Amino acid sequence: MESLRSKKGFLCDMDGVIYKGNNLLPGVKKFVEWLSREEKQFLFLTNSSAKTPRELQQKLGRMGLEVDESHFYTSALATATFLSQQSPGCSAYVIGDSGLFNALHDANITFNDVDPDYVVIGETLNYNYSLICKAMNHVLNGAKLIGTNTDLTGPSESGLIPACRALVAPIEITTGKNAYYIGKPNPLMMRTGLQILGIHSGETAIIGDRMDTDILAGIESGLDPILVLSGVTTRNEIELYPYRPRLVLEGIGDIPPT
């Protein structure tokens, strides 16, 4: 724990670590206050591309936690950065919500449903057969397929719902083309997060509730991988994976000294 507390930077997953649904998890306020008091650098990372940083900031504000907008980083922002670096001025056919559309727009990526360079897919409740057909045909005509993250399912107030990879799957199957996925565990998102914080991976911990995204991302990016049991992973499920977190905590509130 002393090694963890001495880190200069923290990359924290959100759902299952900071909140569940619309409820702040125990100890989160204490943790954020400790980060501020100790002058730690931190980012709240989410694989979801649905919301903008401001929307996430406002969501936490409604739960009674005030955090500056600059402390949020999403797979939508990582996707926009990747595309703007790979192909400046490119165009995309996009299936997603406001977080993805805003991030791409701000990166000067134009929206194109005729002959796009890319098909980009993120989480959305507005998903239908017509969108699948259009995306499929754009990929068959040469557009490159991008998924904002590899999550198959995500949490909702009513239980698990299909997430990004489940929405990309029909296009992959019908075209025979594999998508390139940007979010965790892709080290791209971790490296950009570290650049934003201005610190080295060896000085940074990643805290998450999922073995297949957060912990794997930490291991592959040289971060200190810390699992919390406040989200989707149980202690018994850790044994199903060929890799391990360095520490397993009940929740993020265990990190500040008592």
Please provide a written account of the structure.
By secondary structure, the protein is an alpha/beta fold. It has two domains: 2-47 and 184-254, 3-Layer(aba) Sandwich (Rossmann fold); 87-181, 3-Layer(aba) Sandwich (Rossmann fold). The chain has nine helices and 15 strands. The strands form four sheets. Strands 5-4-1-13-14-15 form a six-stranded parallel beta sheet. Strands 7-6-8-9-12 form a five-stranded parallel beta sheet, with helices on both faces. Strand 4, helix 3 (53-62) and strand 5 form a beta-alpha-beta unit. Helix 4 packs parallel to helix 5 and helix 6 (129-140) packs across helix 7 (164-175). It is globular and about 60 Å long. The relative contact order is 0.17. The model has no long low-confidence stretch (mean pLDDT 95).
Task: Produce the secondary structure layout.
Elements: H1 2-5, E1 9-13, E2 19-20, E3 23-24, H2 28-37, E4 41-46, H3 53-62, E5 72-74, H4 75-86, E6 91-95, H5 98-106, E7 110-111, E8 118-121, H6 129-140, E9 144-147, E10 153-156, E11 159-162, H7 164-175, E12 180-181, H8 187-197, E13 204-208, H9 211-221, E14 224-228, E15 247-249
Parallel strand pairs: 1-4, 1-13, 4-5, 6-7, 6-8, 8-9, 9-12, 13-14, 14-15
Antiparallel strand pairs: 2-3, 10-11
Helix pairs in contact: 4-5, 6-7
Features:
35% helix, single chain, five-stranded parallel β-sheet, alpha/beta, 15 strands, globular, 2 domains, Rossmann fold, six-stranded parallel β-sheet, 258 residues
Short description:
The chain is an alpha/beta fold and 258 residues long. It has nine helices and 15 strands. It folds into two domains: 117 residues, 3-Layer(aba) Sandwich (Rossmann fold), CATH 3.40.50; 95 residues, 3-Layer(aba) Sandwich (Rossmann fold), CATH 3.40.50.1000.
